[in-house]
Amino acid sequence: MRRAHAVADVRDAEAALMRRLPEGTLMRRAAAGLAATCAGLLGRVYGSRVVLLVGSGDNGGDALYAGALLARRGAGVTAALLAPERAHPGGLDALRAAGGLAVTDLAAATRLIDRADVVLDGIVGIGGKGGLRDDAAPLAAAADRSAGLTVAVDLPSGIDPDTGEVPGAAVRADVTVTFGTHKPGLLVDPGARYAGAVRLVPIGIDPGPPVLEALHHSDLAGLLPVPGELSDKYRRGVVGVVAGSARYPGAAVLAVAGALAGAAGAVRYVGPAADAVVRRFPEVLVHAGPPADAGRVQAWVIGPGIGDGSGAREAIAQVLGSGVPVLVDADGLALLRDTTVEPSAELLLTPHAGEAAALLGTDRAAVEAARLAHVRELARARRATVLLKGSTTLVADPVPAPVRVNPTGTGWLATAGSGDVLSGLAGSLLAAGLTARDAGSVAAYLHGLAARRATGVPGAPITAMDVAAALPGAWRDAVTPG
Ligand SMILES: NC(=O)C1=CN([C@@H]2O[C@H](COP(=O)(O)OP(=O)(O)OC[C@H]3O[C@@H](n4cnc5c(N)ncnc54)[C@H](OP(=O)(O)O)[C@@H]3O)[C@@H](O)[C@H]2O)[C@@H](O)CC1
Ligand SMILES: Nc1ncnc2c1ncn2[C@@H]1O[C@H](COP(=O)(O)OP(=O)(O)O)[C@@H](O)[C@H]1O
Ligand SMILES: [K+]
């Protein structure tokens, strides 16, 4: 599991450790890790051109000490000082002693950035508030234009470390070297898009429980169910899928395709698209009446393509009161706004940003700009586990617990119907006995992995059915050791 901690906890942990260590130890550890990464990226340090963007805090100090280490190995290092009178004095002395230069003329610095092999962004780190200020923004733009690599110190300056919100201009990094632990803003979009490849340099701090966590490949084997000797199709769990309509039969087929690739022993389809479903998947049990009469299931998936007619309203009331976990997606989410039935078991909602916005009474752009805050708010307000789809899919519980962020996926997943496959898959895992939190995050992981397998490298358009077809391979991949 990859974990991210709140800035306040990082600061407390840093203070606790610093009381036990000689002054400057943590900064030296950070700078050494940073310099090692830069050296690796440069290949040959001697004769390379390195520009440091240095702000007024310790983030700039890290950049200066790392610059000093590179200068000692023969790099030409110049620091552009954004706040000359407040630049970290020890770092500045170290850089000068190693033969590096410091400039305060930011126009001259911009010209140096154009020709740099590596630009180190030490403008601001976890002490940053708001977007980049006016003097720093042109330097960030120059680094973006430059052919050299931009390496962010701790996090790209201008992104909010705790939330991933990007309120103004920000540095776009190719690589981020972060210290001690990940910061939530590095893993959640839009901030994650600015971070590039993230490398963690341990500095010995112990910041306690995380606020965010991402499943790692090695976590999957422990979470995915494996049938035992005594398993039969009912013991493995039956998932009921209420999806599709005469108008949208495809949604039923796609949700069922996802459900069949999950861990349930059987899939029971309920709705008017049974013919289309059975033609494609003869193994599915079908039922044309309401869900209450369909036979036993261990979890329901309801919503994709069901519309908002009276049958759909009746169906959502029935499944919410059924006593088994329910996943609500797509049209089902709109119906949830009017239903008065209290869920009788775990509830997992799988909105995209637009659907989450509608449930919260805000707009899509607001949700996309502050995904972490909105997923938490929706989980609290609806007393449900919420899986917010999109790039960096998030899964939040209604009770205080780290939010899960999905590390797999590709922009090619943004294709019609891929969400239906995801809801079927997650519902199947719910039926197999996973909690809503595990079912949602494991499904998102496998779904993203399947999409990557289907799209290949460097990537090409894929359909939702391609994603479903790639799920068994993704599952095998996920449980293969090492
Ligand atoms: N914690 C740890 O374990 C370790 C932390 N370490 C390092 O320390 C870093 C944190 O250092 P920090 O606390 O000095 O804050 P930092 O991020 O440099 O910036 C604060 C200054 O920036 C300014 N400023 C604010 N917003 C701004 C903006 N938008 N645009 C421009 N400027 C802005 C603000 O100044 P003012 O508002 O007064 O002008 C303030 O003085 C951390 O990220 C890591 O790199 C490591 O060395 C080792 C262990
Ligand atoms: N930019 C993106 N990067 C990665 N994945 C994305 C992106 N946009 C959407 N997705 C994923 O694609 C799927 C789309 O689901 P959804 O919006 O419900 O579409 P549909 O309703 O057509 O099935 C979700 O799994 C979502 O997380
Ligand atoms: K930075």
CATH architectural type of the largest domain: 3-Layer(aba) Sandwich
CA-based shape: elongated
Number of domains: 2
Structural class: alpha/beta
Mean pLDDT: 96
Sheet with the most strands, sense and barrel status:
11 strands, mixed
Helix content: 40-55%
Bound molecules: ligand NPW, adenosine-5'-diphosphate, potassium ion
Number of helices: 18
CATH class of the largest domain: Alpha Beta
Q: Could you characterize the architecture of this molecule?
A:
The protein has 482 residues and is of the alpha/beta class. It has two domains: 2-212, YjeF N-terminal domain (Rossmann fold, 3-Layer(aba) Sandwich); 217-479, UDP-N-acetylmuramoyl-L-alanine:D-glutamate ligase (3-Layer(aba) Sandwich). It contains 18 helices and 18 strands. Strands 1-9-18-17-16-15-14-13-10-11-12 form an eleven-stranded mixed beta sheet, with helices on both faces. α4 links the parallel β3 (76-81) and β4 (101-103). The model has no long low-confidence stretch (mean pLDDT 96). Ligand NPW binds next to α1, α2 and α3.
Brief descriptors of the model:
ATP-binding; 482 residues; Rossmann fold; binds ligand NPW; 18 strands; single chain; kinase; UDP-N-acetylmuramoyl-L-alanine:D-glutamate ligase; binds potassium ion; Nnr; binds adenosine-5'-diphosphate; metal ion binding; 15% strand; alpha/beta; seven-stranded parallel sheet
Sum this structure up briefly.
With 482 residues, the protein is an alpha/beta fold. 41% of the residues lie in helices and 15% in strands. It has helices at residues 7-18, 25-42, 58-72, 89-97, 106-114, 137-145, 191-195, 217-223, 249-260, 274-280, 310-320, 331-336, 353-360, 364-369, 371-382, 418-431, 436-455, 464-479, and strands spanning 2-4, 49-54, 76-81, 101-103, 118-122, 149-153, 175-179, 197-201, 212-214, 238-242, 266-270, 285-287, 299-302, 326-328, 347-349, 385-388, 394-396, 403-405.
